[in-house]
Structures are given as structure tokens and as C-alpha cells.
Amino acid sequence: MTTDHADTWADRLQACYTGVVHDVLRARGHANCVLPPAIRLIDPSHKVAGRAFTLSGHIDHTLDPHETLLRWTGFLSKAAPGSLVVCQPNNSSVALMGELSAETLKLRGVRGYVVDGGCRDVEFILTMGFPVACRFFTPADIVGRWTPDCFDEPVTIGDVTVSPGDYVLADRDGIVAVPGAMAQDVIAKAETAVATENKVRSAILAGMDPQQAYIKFGKF
């Protein structure tokens, strides 16, 4: 898999949608691929896909504000261009994304950001058009409260483990993770499924009985 900024597989995955990618993974015996539905894009009109750059951390009130900001900006420097950041913050009280961080990641060529936690400065992030998915909004930030502890190692969100090299797609329906080892095959099969669904749609709009359409194309 390519890891540079121009990621053709990420582009192809982004042209699909989470429902069809889930269906392909389910057919391959990997149905446990959907992140918790409470994690939503703050702008549901966005769609974003990318190779996962993972981040985890924890609350630590022993650190002073300067140290927490040094560690956070260190993460921003590490985030790989062309990736989609997936964060497990292990807390439900502070925002793990805000205006300046989103601006920085966008400028570095990061495709988007998914966090099993909070976000702030939502209006600014919406205006800049940087795709962010989160559980909740809060004005409380990480300063003096939270620190990253691991980069580019597997993280678990809900029942799904996302590893570096996995591909992640987020759209209006939710977020699906594709294991890196099967990503190329899954993306190709998802593209084929999208084309078949288009044929089913056209047949039904032309008057074909839905059951007959299903029997003919094997997809619904």
C-alpha cells in the first residue's frame, strides 16, 4: 500500500460509500468493521477516506499546560500527510480537536480526523471544510488535562480495532474500517458492487419487479 500523499486506494475508497464497503466486508466474514454510530461527521455532507494514522492518550492532571501543549504539537508534527487520523483519547470530557489543530492537519495534507471523543471550535472547522468525526462537542480543551501516549499503534474504538495501514471511510451513514491486508481487494469489490447497484436501480426505475431485479443481478 502506498503511504505518500497521493493515495489512489484512498481516493477509490472515498468514491464508494460505507454501506457497500460494509457489505463486501461482511461477505468476506469481517462484519465487525463499523465504528460506534455515536461517532459522526460534524458536517454530514463530507465524505473522507484515508490510510489510518492512529493516536491514543489519556487524562493526566500532573502535567502542566506547557508540557501538554508540547506533546500535542508533537503529535501534529508526526501526523502523516495523506493519512486519516484515528484517535482513541480514552476520556469523555475534553476536546481532542479544535481550530488551530484542524488548520495544521489540513495544511500538512492530512485527509481528516476521527476521534472517539470530543471536538471544539466547530464553527471554525466547518468553515475551513476539514472533515472531522467525533462523539460530542465541548469547549474544554486538553491543556493541563490530556496527553498522547502512543502513535501509529493499534487502537480500539467500540468493538473495532484500527491498525496502522488499515483504511477508513467516513460518510453520512457512519464509519467503516477496512483491514490493510484486504484493502485493495475490498475496494475493488466495492466498486464492482456500486456498479451492480446502479444497474439494479436503473432496472427498477425502468419498471422491473424488485424481486426479479434481485434475481437477475444478485444484489439489492
Please tell me about this protein's structure.
The chain is an alpha/beta fold. The chain has a single domain (8-182), classed as Ribonuclease E inhibitor RraA/RraA-like (Glucose Oxidase, domain 1). It is 35% helix and 24% strand. The chain has seven helices and twelve strands. The strands form three sheets. Strands 1, 2, 3, 4, 6, 8, 11 and 12 form an eight-stranded mixed β-sheet that branches. A hairpin with a 2-residue loop joins strand 11 and strand 12 (174-178). It is elongated, with a radius of gyration of 19 Å.
According to CATH, the homologous superfamily is: Ribonuclease E inhibitor RraA/RraA-like
Number of strands: 12
> What structural class is derived from the secondary structure elements?
alpha/beta
Order of SSEs, N→C? HHEEHEHEEHEEEEEEEHH
Mean pLDDT: 93
Strand content: 15-25%
**Can you tell me the CATH topology?**
Glucose Oxidase, domain 1
Number of domains: 1
Number of helices: 7
Radius of gyration: 19 Å
What gap, in angstroms, lies between the N and C termini? 31 Å
Q: What would you say the CATH architecture is?
A: 3-Layer(bba) Sandwich
Q: What's the helical proportion of residues? A: 25-40%
CATH hierarchy, class: Alpha Beta
